[in-house]
């Protein structure tokens, strides 16, 4: 009965869902690293307190909101959801790379903006791809399994971010996040290519 609850239309649909779930796990893992360590990093790097950190994190939220609130609807028909999600991963990885090596506030803002654009492109596109991997009557269960991968990542990211920061230095959590996340671009493209 449990396997019936998360069934997809085809075996290819199951593979696609698995690839998308793994991609979402690693994207959300690095996102939770960013969110959990950023305040400590900003205090260390710039001496910023809660108010300044809040404004900087708004630099992630605003482009993500704009992407999800309208730009994705314009871009997805032109690029396809798989390509858009993959490009979102690449933008996010580039943003993390900038943050890992940021020595100025301008570079930090650039990295945060790229992270916001990337997450704003990835999340709705990958979710849309995942939602089509099931029959209509099973969609809730399939999406529940997909979202569970993100929930697991939300536990692992904060746990590892502090360890990485303490053991390897302030930029390490972002660099590790970027390296771990990069394969998600391939996973999404692979999932979108399966027919």
Features:
disordered N terminus; 86% helix; mainly alpha; 195 residues; 8 helices; Growth Hormone, Chain: A
Tally of individual helices: 8
In total, the number of domains comes to 1
Which runs of at least 5 residues are low in confidence (pLDDT < 50)?
1-7
Please bin the fraction of helical residues: over 70%
**Could you give the order of the helices and strands?**
HHHHHHHH
Average pLDDT rating: 89
CATH topology: Growth Hormone, Chain: A
Number of strands: 0
What would you report as the Rg, rounded to the nearest angstrom? 17 Å
Distance separating the two termini? 27 Å
Helices and strands: which structural class?
mainly alpha
CATH architecture descriptor name: Up-down Bundle
Explained architecture:
Helix content is 86%, strand content 0%. The chain has a single domain (11-193), classed as MFS general substrate transporter like domains (Growth Hormone, Chain: A). The chain has 195 residues and is mainly alpha-helical. The longest helix is centred in the first third of the chain and has 36 residues, at 11-46. The chain starts with a helix and ends with a helix.
